[in-house]
Amino acid sequence: MPADTARAIAAQVWGAVGGDPAALARLSFTGEGALSSCFAATDLAAGSIGAAALAVSELMAAQGAPAPAVATDRRLASLWFGFSVRPVGWSPARGWDPIAGDYPTKDGWIRLHTNAPHHRAAALRALGVPEEREAVAAAVAGWNKAELEAAVVAQGGCAAEMRSLVEWAEHPAGRAVAQEPLVHVELGAVGTPRPVAGAPGRPLAGLRVLDLTRVLAGPVATRFLAGYGAEVLRIDPPDWDEPVVLPEVTLGKRCAGLDLKTAAGRRRLEELLADADVFVHGYRADALERLGLGDARRRELAPSLVDVRLNAYGWTGPWRERRGFDSLVQMSAGVADAGMRWKQADRPTPLPVQALDYATGFLMATAAVRGLTERITAGRASSWRVSLARTAAFLTAQAAGVEDALAPQADDDLAAEVEQTGWGPARRLVPPAVVEGAPMRWAVPAGELRSSPAQWA
């Protein structure tokens, strides 16, 4: 049946976060078709979203309501793994930086990720060329892929040579990631339960989520939490921008700015953290420690905190502090190479959507809500860690994808109401999951970064 793989994925995710297996009986899947991929991208979408929605159902039961059923639409889940917003009368920002992309080297392929100005500058320094794609391509062609990857990373940039699944399995970083759990879980000691009543139809109402994440996984997680009533405050540095995805990932949130390089900025962040229920962050493994906000300090500030962390290449291996993004991890971990072979193409063939980002985001959301349930029922604080590379290993271990085209988007796929975003009116896809009695909806439209003060409402 089409939903079998989605159900298996949801069960594995639910087990990874310590969910009660009996709760899976409340989860159902509908919808036909699948994204065209050698891997089960549609079932990853449906299964990860279904697990997150099931965590909301469990939380509602912990709050005293009858445990509601959860239904996830595989087709809508696939669409939500792309952009959910449809502008009305305006055009979104352009996509990738002109330098970013895949380039042939002397012995294979490499991907340069240059969307951030400092990452673009690092790649150009390593290559010694001006900011012109033709010059970059000519220079890259003279390098071995492994040597260029190392050179760009040494300059503080982001690059990934294309490896096969076998090559990644034999690489020290790949071996380390393969030994990690899908979700690292650390539960604190049992303490005094901290009930949170929520509000009718809004089980996360009254809970504060501090969001220190960037494109794309972390913002997907906090958008989900906002969809069930959480107050989400996103913090960005003064010079950060990600214009292409902002209409997608700022939905439901207020966005503020702080300069954490200053004592005043760090002090204000600590004040916000002290009043947070959930902290979601995507800094590299050592970054918060360098800012004086290591594990011990966070626990001192917020003893009952649900702490959810993300990085690119796992938490135990030699690449645990390496910068990375979905498209880079797909190159490193064998996904793009497998897609090329499956498609019989002559260049890297990634997944049809940024499935590692989105799935990891829903893993983070599942962990956050499960952490809140642990806090409400047992008074436990908790820490949860995920990585894009571990999600890649999870996906490649599932059943193969299928050629089963999705029906094209129709007007019925869009919510009737118009969202007044910071860029103009838009319509949003209908939510991909339904928790009985708690519709996923957002009180705050998508808006610009740093458009709100750095304070709780």
Description of the molecule:
With 457 residues, the chain is α/β, with parallel strands linked by helices. It has two domains: 4-92 and 179-314 and 352-435, Rossmann fold; 109-161, no CATH class. Helix content is 37%, strand content 16%. The strands form four sheets. It has a seven-stranded mixed sheet with strand order 7-13-12-11-8-9-10. A three-stranded mixed sheet has the order 1-2-16. Strand 4 (101-104) and strand 5 (109-113) form a beta hairpin. Helix 2 crosses helix 3 (74-80) and helix 16 (355-378) packs across helix 17 (388-396). The protein is globular.
- Text of the CATH class of the largest domain: Alpha Beta
Q: Measured on Cα atoms, how large is the radius of gyration? A: 21 Å
Fold-level CATH name of the largest domain:
Rossmann fold
CATH architecture of the largest domain: 3-Layer(aba) Sandwich
The pLDDT mean sits at 95
- Sheet/helix structural class: alpha/beta
- Helical stretch count? 17
Q: What's the domain count?
A: 2
Helix content: 25-40%
Described by strand count, sense and barrel closure, the largest sheet is: 7 strands, mixed
Number of strands: 16
Dominant shape:
globular
Q: Could you list the spans in which at least 5 consecutive residues all have pLDDT below 50?
A: none
N- and C-termini, Cα separation: 46 Å
Q: What percentage of the residues does DSSP assign to strands (E)?
A: 15-25%
Strand order of the largest sheet: 7-13-12-11-8-9-10
Find the CATH superfamily of the largest domain.
Answer: Crotonobetainyl-coa:carnitine coa-transferase, domain 1
